[in-house]
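Q: We require from you a single protein entry containing the residue sequence and its fold in token form, and nothing else.
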Amino acid sequence: MEMLSLKTELTENAYPGRGIIIGKSADGTKAVTAYFIMGRSSNSRNRIFVEDGEGIRTQAFDPSKLEDPSLIIYAPVRVLGNKTIVTNGDQTDTIYDGMDIQLTFEQSLRSREFEPDGPNYTPRISGIMHIENGNFNYAMSILKSNNGNPDACNRYTFAYENPVAGEGHFIHTYMHDGNPLPSFEGEPKLVSIPDDIDAFTDLLWSSLNEDNKVSLFVRYIDIASGTYETKIVNKNV
């Protein structure tokens, strides 16, 4: 698979929607994830990321302007022991609760499907990172309508064992802007992961469309110790 430029992927796409990146830093010592949200409506844009324990949640920037919270207020990131869960919706809680009773990542998502926001039927994208005894692996999932048909849900899981240093994978909700919005297609995209969290954060934030970007979360987890560093950037400050 060809390694793509994250800068090009983002600067040339005005609306990839929400995106998850997971991989390993170039020096092989860090498990890396990033999650961003974008918005076209005033309700979607009226959000910020805030820390919530070891994870984060979305919050209305101006509560007086909050319209429908059902699909925009959720916890994108939660930590369950040595597992870090990253998703674009409240399925974070579904995965957390399922894995807490020994279900797998894939089994936990069986009870969910794409978002009920026709005609877009936004895919639910999810990621799970597992660090144990100095080893790191991850998986990514997308639940999407069958080419826009809400009567059928297509489920895809991609698992990455013993990830290669400097490599990661990028999945996002929409192929590009449109009405209705076309769902992501294919495997998660192969991208490079640098060592420096500040440089990676700056690259992502500066490459996202200025009008549509809302918030960005980046975390680097030390594979040996489990300690981590987090960066949060909000357009609304």
